Amino acid sequence: MVLSLPQLRDAENAHFACLTERELADRRREEGVRVISHRGHYWEQSGAPGFFQPVHLLARLTPAEATSPTPLAWGFRAALTPETAGAATGTVPVVRLRDLDSYDASHLSSNRRNKLRKCQKTVRIVQLTGPSVLLEQGYAVVRDALSRTQHKKIPTMEDYLKDVRRYFMSDHWCVLAGMIDGKLGGYLDGYVVDGVAYGFSAYYASWALPTNISTGLSFEFAQICRRLKTVHTLVGGLHAREATQLGQFKDDLGYIVDPVPIQWGMNPLAKAFIRWRRPHAYYRLTGLE
């Protein structure tokens, strides 16, 4: 199949909208996510139905604001303002770049710098401006990546297509792809809200891993965020303490684990079950053992 529209933009020219919390809430609703307005902030249903957190995870709330947004929620969490951090009942263990403003190749470990140079010789990193590449090649990459990592369930083709449509419904998603001899080797996505950039998902085909595509895409997304003068923080997910290889990768790239104080609540039965059956997920939800 020949792509009628390349829909590619070189990463150095990448651009996308940086949103406010309210604008992100509107986008989430358009994408079909359940969003609730509560005490001056916007909350979204995240993960299992009935669990809520602010659409902007690192929005800083007061203890009076950081309460359950609906009586029907079985759980919630929200980050607290620095002034009220003493009221925290847990943390959210975010992984963020130590210093985005000055971030360049010198912040990488020497081994990671070598991998970055190798990637830059073989991988063309581009921003996708339309769905063509993902519609043609993306599902195979996602299926391959998740079969290898098993960090979440492989989506059905129908659900995958919904995600692709979501990317291009508006202008706030940045989707970066690594093209190797015209073939999609992997891609990642992210967005910016109120000065915080969130790297959301990343998928790499097994055949592309020897090119160090993951290093190249992660580094380039950080450079794009750095060029956006309104961005002061880049979050690369939550700390997966059980995934030591991923932790080393993040460490080599210059990320640190930053336990942000939160207020949280959870149904006692749900709390006991998650803590027993999924202790690492419980840690990511609450920062507690």
Any descriptors?
single chain, 289 residues, alpha+beta, Aminopeptidase, 13-stranded mixed β-sheet, 8 helices, 13 strands, 28% strand, globular, Acyl_CoA_acyltransferase
Contiguous uncertain segments of 5+ residues? 1-5
- Tally of DSSP β-strands: 13
Distance between the ends: 50 Å
Q: Into which percent range does the helicity of residues fall?
A: 25-40%
- Estimated structural class: alpha+beta
Q: Major β-sheet, in short?
A: 13 strands, mixed
CATH topology label of one domain: Aminopeptidase
Give the helices and strands as they follow along the chain: EEHEEEEEHEHHEEEHEHEHH
Count of helix runs: 8
CATH hierarchy class name of one domain:
Alpha Beta
Global geometry: globular
Average pLDDT works out at 95
CATH architectural grouping of one domain = 3-Layer(aba) Sandwich
Strand content: 25-35%
Name the CATH superfamily classification of one domain. Answer: Gcn5-related N-acetyltransferase (GNAT)
How much is the radius of gyration in Å? 19 Å
Protein name: GNAT family N-acetyltransferase
InterPro entries: Acyl_CoA_acyltransferase
